[in-house]
Amino acid sequence: MPNKNYKLSAEFYDLLHKNEVESLAKKLVSHLYPYGIPEGSDILDLGCGTGTLLENIYSAKSRFLGIDLAPEMIDIAIKKYQHIEFIAMDMCAVNLKRSFDLILCTNDAINYLIPESRVLLFELIANHLKNNGSCYIDFDTETDIVGCWDGQISYNEGNGWQVTRSSFYDAAKRIGIERQNWIVIEDGELKKITEIHNLYPLSPKEVTELAEKFGMFVEYFIEPSQFIRLEDSFESYLRLGCLLRI
């Protein structure tokens, strides 16, 4: 996931994802905490990016920690939200020696992990989750990456930036590849940069098995755009969320 060009594109990250992150924050809190986040809660965001999700669920009476591998993202988060703690580190190597009421891993961050690292992530979650705590993860499904990625192209632009994202699936390596071609203006200079994002397919079955491997269970899966609890087959969904408990 880290990329030498993040120094340029990180500042536009919020503009690209702002609406979806704000929407997720509202739905997440209303779904899990209809009466508000309980006072004194400890909340951890793995793959926090520039901290927007934590800021949107922030309460002064609870403790929040965001972790991301990209120092450029964390630098921006620290500058924007000085009332929240952020650490730049590998989320699969975390040993915080504290536990959390809620652990988040959103925006398909888990798809960036190679399958071997997913095992480490689920072990980490199990080791840091309180007995009555919850973990919310969302992910791009195998159905989407394997079946729908080839030929997808999207375009976004804003003040001082534009990005074209194209994707395809490498069946031999079982990797979904998204190429992001950025044009940004920095200090009056036009710069063109390219980021390559490798995402690994993930199925509901794999999530369930990984959770059970470390003494957790999937309480239920969620359709993340509407945050609706699912009771039927999950194989047709392109993205899913799920709630884990111990």
Automatic annotation (TrEMBL):
<dbReference type="InterPro" id="IPR029063">
    <property type="entry name" value="SAM-dependent_MTases_sf"/>
</dbReference>
<dbReference type="InterPro" id="IPR041698">
    <property type="entry name" value="Methyltransf_25"/>
</dbReference>
<dbReference type="GO" id="GO:0016740">
    <property type="term" value="F:transferase activity"/>
</dbReference>
<protein>
    <submittedName>
        <fullName>Unannotated protein</fullName>
    </submittedName>
</protein>
<keyword id="KW-0808">Transferase</keyword>
<dbReference type="Pfam" id="PF13649">
    <property type="entry name" value="Methyltransf_25"/>
</dbReference>
<feature type="domain" description="Methyltransferase">
    <location>
        <begin position="43"/>
        <end position="133"/>
    </location>
</feature>
